[in-house]
Amino acid sequence: MIYFDNASTSFPKPPQVVEAMHHYLTQVGASPGRSGHRLSVEAGRIVYETREALAQLFGIEDPLRIVFGHNATEALNLSLNGLLRPGDHVITSSMEHNSVMRPLRSLERRGVRLTVIPCSAQGFLNPAEVEKAISPDTRLIVLNHASNVTGILLPVPEVGRIARKHGLLFLVDAAQTAGSCPIDVQADCIDLLAFTGHKSLLGPTGTGGLYIGPRVAVDELDPLMRGGTGSRSEFEQQPDFPPDKYESGTSNAVGLAGLGAGVRFVLESGVDQIRGHEMRLTQQLLEGLAPIKGVTVYGPKGSSLQTATVSFNIAGLEPSEVGLRMDEEYGVMCRPGLHCAPSAHKTIGTFPRGTVRFALGFFSTTDEVDQAIVAVKQMASEGEK
Amino acid sequence: MSESEFGVMLFYSTNWAIRAERVAKKAGFEVKLIPTPRHLSSDCGTALRFRWPDRDALATLLEEHKVVLEKVAQL
Predict the structure, then answer these.
(1) What is the per-residue pLDDT across A321-344, written as a single tens digit (0 to 9) for each?
(2) Which of A176, A127, A130, A126 is nearest to A150 (CA)?
(3) Does B19 contact chain A (CB < 8 Å)?
(4) Does residue A121 share a domain with residue A256?
(5) Chain-chain contact of B13 with A33 (C-beta, under 8 angstroms)
(6) In sequence order, which ranges of chain A are alpha helices (DSSP H)?
(7) Is A45's Cβ below 8 Å from some Cβ in B?
(8) Domains and CATH numbers, chain B
């Protein structure tokens, strides 16, 4: 079996992740931050250590400015719904996932003004176009670090500097890059970083979070939910400090134990090494697909310009058919369709048909890429007939 | 050592208590996280017990690490 759906969820996970979750469930078990007994304190420590590991990975000064949630979608919803008010203007790109587009379209109906900057057919965003769209009511720029459709890397540091220059907040959706591409919130001028645990951070599903930088006033960012936090329990009002303000209800502590182990695995492996491995495999895949007659590859088609995600189509075959046959006949797990990103597919000209997406990961191998290329070659030659 | 040689530090959140414990232990202080004594707070959280003579040095260290204290009391 060849698992090429890592842009959805990474698989397999490092054994340390499974061990950390097993340890939590068998040796710790308690609610983090809800009591003073040793098991609750230990659970709290495990969750805190996960914050520390993430802070180290992203160059974050204060681990308590990282708030946990289920995934990047929750972090993006918290940022957008918590920050934007009627009359505010927000700028984004046409390569965004629906986790950004849907909250923004909903806010638009409630009086937030939205500008979507068109990207080129390869998915490139011109930072100068972003700067031109800034007006006196602009509050926020939100940008995908990398597209989940074509893998293209968007110009985060350049747009970050533009946001800073104009006194705007900058929110980055790092769902596709956290753990596999270098991210430094200070160097990249990132005020809000939304990440998920279950992709390149190698944690389990149901983990993710948001970094809230010092330029974001906590009293201007409303929580998505309110409730018990284990702190300031004498008050019926929500605490006003992070992370408690944004972490109501018992957290996914077992998941966060696994996420911590995943992030430490990433730190020990080195993001540069992970990126290097994935770039070599991506280059191999791109070079293998390019000469195949009937195959169209989308995106920047250069491993230094994208993540390990490659979208393509085979002439005469629907993406869904390719996906099914990849699984049934070749044992290749991939993802066909629109990938929850209709705007990105419109940008690259593949809407509503969609594409077939191969998303490699740190545990993918040269042999697997070779086998997948052979599978595409065979299917394409049949499509010719 | 009698009980009066201990003090406790209270925080607004367990997250801060855990950070305080990590910082203090790294610097060699003898500390322990305990349930917040009822007579000091009705909160359901965790407090940091420490040796009372360490109180100034510990408070300075925590301030350097931006840990916000809610209350300091002798046991």
Answers:
(1) 999 999 999 999 999 999 999 999
(2) A176
(3) yes
(4) yes
(5) yes
(6) 15-23, 38-58, 72-83, 98-109, 127-133, 156-165, 253-269, 271-289, 319-330, 342-348, 366-384
(7) yes
(8) 3-74 (3.30.70)
